[in-house]
Amino acid sequence: MMNALKAEDGTRLTKRFDMERRIKEYYTSLFASKSVVPLVEDNREEDEMPPILISEVRTAVQSLKADKAPGPDGITNEALKFGGYELWKIIAKLFNECLENEDIPTQWKQSLTIIIPKKGDREDLKNYRPIALLPTIYKLFTKVLVNRMTRQLDEQQPREQAGFRSGFSTIDHLQVINQILERTKECKIPLCMVFVDYEKAFDSIEINAVINALVRQNIPKKYIRTLVNINTGCSTSFRLFNNNIAIPINRGVRQGDTISPKLFTAALEDVFRTLSWENRGIMVDGELLTHLHLADDIVLFAYNVKTVAEMLKELNEASRRMTNVPVKTSI
């Protein structure tokens, strides 16, 4: 239970009405579109889209974790698993209707959001992570979609990206960084590293930036149109003092959605492809290494401060221009 929140000017709010108003103001601003990211023209031909099979629904259901809180629909993962073939058959029919119409029921666009404290002052909303409790049946639908798109999206990711990918691990990147530190120290080679984090990454990215990335990475047009529509007209409710505080969502990919990590890393890769870093970075085993990243956590490499500062500036400018998400750094 929150006992107090800080207003934007630092004033301490302790009254229920003031705290509810602060949450509404803060998250309405966070989820509001801040800039217009123009959509790229998509002149590709339509791909033939196979219907969603019962086996695809079964695979998605079997991957669901147990003991997870249900969303607004009240459906638990256990209920979907115990429903068996006859239920999965009905769900497959429903999902095919959604794919045919390239949209989802309005109820699926509504969520409940809880906020989880991170490090720092617990009276400052910036130090909370919003997690959306989405309708379980909606998450199953996006799970089916992401299962269809994963191979194609992963093929577009470079080896420097280890986030949200099967067969890749944070430990691998940490070992690479340790080896770089050991070798440069042993050989007395100068090394500069900048650690980059995207502020409110999932919540702040403009949906048009995601769509542009999917077009450039050749995701079928029907999937893209469906994703546009399911991210249009969304809203969430925060519960404080047993009152629901409704907030419209006009940007970002939703925390807690199975498809969001893939969408974000696709957009991030779109940013990196615009950077001309052919002569930047450091040599590792005869190859040039400019960066490593795990989802939205990135480390840049260079031999001197001037070069790594230029790389950081270029990354920040490209990120703001293409996604409207600024970066935070530590050297």
From TrEMBL:
Under the heading PROSITE patterns, the entry gives: RT_POL (PS50878)
Q: Which residues form the Reverse transcriptase domain?
A: 97-331
Write down the InterPro entries for this protein, in alphabetical order: DNA/RNA_pol_sf, RT_dom
Organism source for this protein? Rotaria magnacalcarata
> Where does the sequence pass through the membrane?
none
* One Pfam family linked to the record: RVT_1
Q: Which domain of life is it from?
A: Eukaryota
> Which protein is depicted?
Reverse transcriptase domain-containing protein
